[in-house]
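Sequence, please.
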C-alpha cells in the first residue's frame, strides 16, 4: 500500500484555497479509495479526504493530524473524529474511540466556514478516511 506525497506547492495552495460548497452527496460518492496520499505528521489520507482539502477544509484535516503527534493518541487504532457546526457557525471537533464511547479530544472553534452541519472522519492506524470509504 504505497502513498503518493502531496507536492509542497499543492499543499500550500490547498491551505490558501477558499471554501467551496460541499454536500453530503459529494462525500457519499467516495467508496473505498484508489490512492493514499502522505499528508502531515505521518498521516495518510484517502481520495475522499483529499477532496475535502481541495474544497477548503485543509484546516480541519491539519487540526486532526496535529493530534497524531501525541504517542497516546497514536495508540488508539480506531478513532472517530466529528466536526459539528452550529447555526451561528461555531463548531466543535471531537475524537472518540468509537461512537458510543467518551470523548477523548474536544476542540472548539469560534467560527468556521464549513458548509456542512457535521463531518465524520475515521483515523485508522494512521489513515484518515471518510466513513463511506471504510
Amino acid at each position: 500500500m504505497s502513498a503518493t506525497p502531496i507536492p509542497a506547492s499543492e499543499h500550500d495552495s490547498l491551505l490558501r484555497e477558499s471554501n467551496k460548497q460541499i454536500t453530503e452527496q459529494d462525500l457519499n460518492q467516495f467508496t473505498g479509495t484508489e490512492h493514499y496520499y502522505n499528508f502531515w505528521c505521518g498521516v495518510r489520507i484517502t481520495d475522499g479526504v483529499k477532496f475535502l482539502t481541495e474544497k477548503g477544509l485543509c484546516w480541519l484535516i491539519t487540526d486532526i493530524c496535529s493530534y497524531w503527534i501525541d504517542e497516546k493518541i497514536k495508540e488508539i487504532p480506531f478513532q472517530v473524529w466529528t466536526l459539528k457546526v452550529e447555526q451561528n457557525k461555531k463548531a466543535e471537533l471531537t475524537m472518540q474511540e468509537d461512537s458510543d464511547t467518551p470523548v477523548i479530544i474536544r476542540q472548539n472553534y469560534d467560527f468556521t466556514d464549513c458548509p456542512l452541519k457535521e463531518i465524520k472522519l475515521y483515523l485508522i492506524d494512521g489513515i484518515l478516511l471518510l466513513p463511506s470509504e471504510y
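DSSP finds four helices and eight strands in the chain.
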